[in-house]
Amino acid sequence: MDDLLRAMEEYAALRTIPVIGRDGAALLCATVASARPRAILEIGTAIGYSTLLMAGQAAAGARITTIEIDAERAAAARAFFSRSRHAAAIELLVGDAAAILPGLDGAYDFLFIDAAKAHYLQYLAGAMDKLQPGAVIFADNVYFYGLVTAERPPRRMRTLVKRMRAYLEFVNNDPRFTTTIHPIGDGIAISRFQGDDSHDHT
Questions:
Q1: Predicted pLDDT of residue 200
Q2: Reduced 3-state DSSP string for the chain
Q3: Which domains does the chain have, with CATH numbers?
Q4: Which of 82, 136, 185, 189 has its CA 20 to 30 A from that of 26?
Q5: Strands 131-140 and 188-193: what pairing?
């Protein structure tokens, strides 16, 4: 597995495809190992690097559904999955997550978001009715090159920054979530979903 992950890192570096950085990968592995999820939903497969990291730490028999909009990257991910012992546990869906999410009928206990930065809140909103109470949401790159915490982000980035700030504001202030932001890599937000039914928490 380590050899496969190294091959994926080299493949990504050669093609400038972003994959989760070393510190972020360590935090992701630790978070999944602690949560022991049985049903993982990933938005933003890229070449499947984080998918395989999660597969290696999830509960025995866990299933992963992963969504990738770029057909070429999805094809690379499939090829990498086929070289791993986790291939049978992974379902890769190709297309726009916003369009795919409504059709999913799973109940997920772990959500990993690393896709179009302007749409994190939209993705979370689309997945919320499929999250089990206690589900963990791991969102990568929430600082967006430090621009999210900058006082005056460049004009062309302002809409994106505004939307990412809206995501962070939501998971930090909505009572259904408890969130910790880790200043690792480009910022990682880990939230725990308390469930939609407030009667459970009286």
A1: 43
A2: CHHHHHHHHHHHHHCCCCCCCHHHHHHHHHHHHHHCCCEEEEECCCCCHHHHHHHHHCCCCCEEEEEECCHHHHHHHHHHHHCCCCHHHEEEEECCHHHHHHHCCCCEEEEEECCCHHHHHHHHHHHHHHEEEEEEEEEECCCCCCHHHCCCCCHHHHHHHHHHHHHHHHHHHCCCEEEEEECCCCCEEEEEECCCCHHHHC
A3: 2-195 (3.40.50.150)
A4: 82
A5: antiparallel
Run means of pLDDT, 10 residues per run, the chain, 202 residues: 94 95 96 98 98 97 98 98 97 97 94 95 96 97 92 92 96 97 95 74 38
This prediction's pTM: 0.94
Residue-level pLDDT at 29: 98
